[in-house]
Amino acid sequence: MKARLTFAMLLLAGIWPLHHSKAKTDTATPANDAGTSAQASDGNVSHLPGPSYLIGPEDTLHVSVWKEPELTATLPVRSDGKISLPLLNDVQAAGLTPMQLAASLQEKLKKYLDDPRVSVVVSQMNSQRFFATGEVQHSGALPLLPNMTVLQGLATSGLTQFANTKKIYVLRSVNGVQQKLPVNYKQLIKGEAMTQNIVLKPGDTIVVP
Question: Strand 89-92 vs strand 118-124: parallel, antiparallel, or unpaired?
């Protein structure tokens, strides 16, 4: 009798830690999944504009109104700086940040909806451009991503086999005055003269002789 009781107690003692350990593992799993999801989300939005980004003509916006699929749409910003939405017709978008535009739309929609919730995301930054000319594979206007450097700009435009990589320069207009900023591509790709790897601004022109 005593032997059976001892065996039963040992069996219970062995089962409980196993069950307890499994419960801990099951509980921890959602937290790990959430962490992976957050990391993936961060990776996906790394090229989205920051909160201070000003919307411009030709940008593409995704306007989402919570629980109102008819009012949710992806829209281009017209050359006059406005977008067209159901109920509201033309709304000024250029010159505002995405959060400012969302607040403006939310306020206007209060006439038609109870507690409207609006979010605005810039899905394409077509108003932010730089230019490339000369011995490049892709000349003309090119999309300017946030914090894009001249080296990244050259990677986007590409260079021809005839490019003089020692005499590249960036033309930039400052208060109506043209500045010429030298760029030695050969030094940059070696990790030298990194002060020349300037962050491009809208309207900059990379010239490759």
Answer: unpaired
Q: What is the pLDDT of residues 142-198, one digit of tens each?
A: 989 888 999 999 999 999 999 999 999 999 999 889 999 999 999 999 999 899 999
What are the structural domains, with CATH classification, of the chain? Answer: 60-124 (3.30.1950.10), 129-208 (3.10.560.10)
* Contacting residues for 22 by C-beta, under 8 A, at least 6 apart: none
Using left for φ > 0, alpha for ψ between -120 and 50, and beta otherwise, residue 32 falls in alpha
> What kind and span of H or E run contains 142?
strand 140-143
Q: Which pair of tokens denotes residue 188?
A: 């940059």
- Between the alpha carbon of residue 80 and those of residues 56, 107, 143, 186, 198, the distances in Å are 9, 22, 20, 42, 31
27's enclosing H/E stretch is helix 2-44
Distance CA 64, CA 60 (A): 13
Amino acid at 159: L
pTM for this prediction: 0.59
- Ramachandran angles phi, psi of 123, nearest 5°: -90, -25
DSSP characters for 78-96? Answer: PTTSEEEETTTEEEE-TTS
| CA nearest neighbour of 124 among 105, 102, 146, 109 | 146
Alpha carbons 74 and 77: distance in angstroms, whole number: 10
Residue labelled with tokens 């790709």: 189
